[in-house]
Amino acid sequence: MTGMGTVFRFEYTQQVRKKPFVITTVLLAIAAVIAALCPALFASSLESSGDTQTVTGGVYYADASLAGTLPFKDDHVYSSEGALRDAVTDGTESVGFVVSDPTHITTYYNNYTAGVAKDSSLVRSMLQQIYVTSRLAASGVSPEEYEALLSTPVEENRQILGRDTTTQYAMAIVYLVLVYMVVLFYGQTVAAAVAREKDSKTMELLITSTRPSNLILGKVAGLTCAALTQLAVVLAALLATFAGARPHYPQAVQDMLATVLDTSMLGVYLINFVLALMLYMVLYAALGSLVSRVEDVSTATAPVIALVVIAYFLAFYATNGTTSALLDVGSWIPFFSVFVMPIRFSVGTASWALVLGSTAVTLAFTVALAWMSVRIYRWGTLRYGSRVGLVTAVRKAFAKE
Length: 401
What we know:
- By secondary structure, the chain is mainly α.
- The protein has 16 helices and 3 strands.
- It has a 3-stranded mixed sheet, with helices on both faces.
- Strand 2 (95-101) and strand 3 form a beta hairpin.
- Helix 1 packs across helix 8.
């Protein structure tokens, strides 16, 4: 093991061959396939159900002229109010409706639940429609004319002088959730891998076989590529299923997807995603080298987890198009900017100049952090004993030169 390339290949191969990695990838791919199929399955269930609508419970028509106007099955229509109330009392019916006229009903409940409340709302809505139709007929207005009046469209001549950011909202949320989950999961994996090598004394052999920079950068690059591989497999399963199932989606879903699936900013998301992984992975690796036992990794990495959580909520705050000094500052702090800046750009509160400037700062900071992490890694890997803080580790690592 003499170079970073060798370390990279070893770490990448070891990660993608692990049984938990394979199982997780398969389960995520299956979940993606199911998610892509759900709209098509939902559409199929709607078609199979037809237009028949029934209401659960029983009914008694006190006004005989309304008999049969509500969609109750024949065996749930009662001849008297007393018979209906007895059926509700003994549990034969969960709810009973006594229809006095289109604007008055009495409802008997056995147990009042959300389900029966929904049926009550449906019955009242149907009776309201019957009442409106009868009044319209008395006034000489047909139901068709009334519906035509209600559905009169208002034409809008939409003139967008800037950018239409509504098409990016869904992609922004997907990016935010993905980068949050991947950074936390793989960051812990990197820190635990370094701590495990140190705990088993393997680090003492590795550090004499190659340079510390090759070890930490090769490990970070290998595990980052493993994360991207897993994500690529899941996305491939999602996109392949989506391409086949999309023609079977309900028209409303297809219309919605046509407006939210805007991939024009995919490059911005991808660059910041990779930067976020590299930035946090080198920091996690450095922190992992500061502990002597794997059990201490969670304590050592707690400050980084706090940074990720703050960055996540700051970026989520930016999704509503808000502009504030807090977001302006967060857009230039690398640990936050990889979350915040793509979101701000997607919703139209940041310009290309700001995005390019923030990305350049983040890239430079990532290189500097990698260099600093190599120094911490070199000092921390051969140190055993109680855990030290990051500030102390930085001071010690640079004092030894």
